[in-house]
Amino acid sequence: MLQAVNVSMASLNLTTLSPMLVAVGGALLILIIDLLKKDMTKSLYVMLSVLILFVDFGAVLSLSINERGLFDLMLIDGISIVSQLIILLASMLFIPLALTQKRFHEYAYPEYFALFLFMVAGFQFMVATDNLILIFIGLETASLALYTMIAMHNTRGSHEAAIKYFTMGAMAAGFYVMGSAVIYGISGTVELSEVSKILLERMSEAGIALPIIGASILLLVAIGFKVSLMPFHMWTPDVYEGSSAPMAGYMSIVPKLAMMVVAIRVLSFYIDIGMEPVRYMVIALAVVTMTFANIMALVQFDVKRMLAYSSISHAGFVMAALALDTTKAYSGIFLYYGLFLFTNLGAFTMLWITRHKQKKYHSRFHHPYEKFAGLIHSAPMGAVIMAIFMLSLTGVPPFSLFWGKMYIISATVDAGYIWLAVIMALNSAIAAYYYLKLVVYMFLKPKPEGVEAIGVNSSRPLIVIVGIAAAVTTFSVFLMEPMLSYINYMVSVSGY
Amino acid sequence: MIGLGHYLILASILFAIGLVGVIRRKNLLMLFFATEIMLNAANVAFAAISSYHNDLTGQMFAFFIVAVAASEVAVGLGLLILLYKKYGSLDLDDYTMLKG
Hints:
heterodimer; A: 496 residues; mainly alpha; two-stranded antiparallel ribbon; globular; B: 100 residues; Helix Hairpins; 78% helix; 0% strand
């Protein structure tokens, strides 16, 4: 006779689950509304999604720090709260971009918004746990929704982009589960906090280093695919080019940040047990990513592809901070993504505003540099705002990313890696070339004859989003103090 | 007597077969099969290690992998049908719009 299993509700601590429940419940609500009444306007779904994300945001803010719940599966520590807040902020800025002047295929389906909320829930699960199973489930929930959303853009390019991302993602999943299998094999548990305790005891055994390093390589490959580090970056520019501009902007922030948090959890335990080779591997990956992505970005003709390579290079920059394993460096990661969110989403939204159904300027690209020639004459405001985003990405002082870059570089110097800091600074200098190239096109090139205004897709919500992004980018100097102290506190209470 | 080592060797061989398949295959359907082989290699490893440690976590993980693999195939085949309708081919070399 089997014993009845008794679990008290209090021990489950379901409040740790509340943010994800809000997102999943909201997605189901959208599906139900669609079932009950067809042909509702898309602005209803947009507003509903924003509202749900807002409630979700509140639920995250009301979580108490360093709690576990649901049979110790959920882990609510400081970095999981900070990363969830950044993810939700990016999502709230992303979803109003559906309210465009022109009609696009994907926004006609309510399922798009439901999928979007499921994806957000997936990313939240990914960052709010240290259990390898739940990380995997969250990762795949989010990725499968993301592939579908890319394909729903319904152009030739977007189908190709979706299939490319899908095959690369499936391969990354294979590497991830194999890496988890090795970790499970040597430690007998899949909870990373337990794993590091057990491995610390077993470190002296002969022949244990080989499987530990092997697992780290398998997991690093999986992380590399998702964060798009250099040897595994092949899909990134193609996928960004094929998907819609806001989607590309979103992909350059949220999936990368979520995987970065997983990387923090995995790598910090490797560094804890004293596996220095893993640290060197991460530094090597970061340096290669920064440098080669920058060189590739120099030769691009399309602004969107240039931004894709630039976001690869930014990911490499942040990856370098990951290897340092100091509180300052970990805070730097979140600070950087918190600032990068506004700048990069703003830049991609500017591309979205200029989106035209026909490719008038180039046989293949939607946003070649020539399209922006002489923008200062036709749309002075747009040109200035785009220039602010480009200068911020370069790292010019008053604008937001300068502070992020400075903070990470100073953390690198503090940790004693002077040569790494020099490489990071040099890369920022190289990057200035391709960002400023766009500024030169906008401000100094003459406007081509017979071209009408390019802001064909602009609408009030899009302008508001760009305005918010530009305002945060410009006045970030006033935000630095509160943001830094909050992030620093959150990272240090989680014990990193 | 077949021990843990044999299962792990089998798992790594399967993983290698899957990896080579993903890299070498040009047909999308074959590529999907290869990724499935990679996931199932991990399943074999998990089940074997789970019985070796006398701990159910690994088998639980294997079940989750099976479920995820199934949903991945559902999404993947949907995309594949969409592409076949557009291009009339499943060969990766025919999808040449995005490159460079």
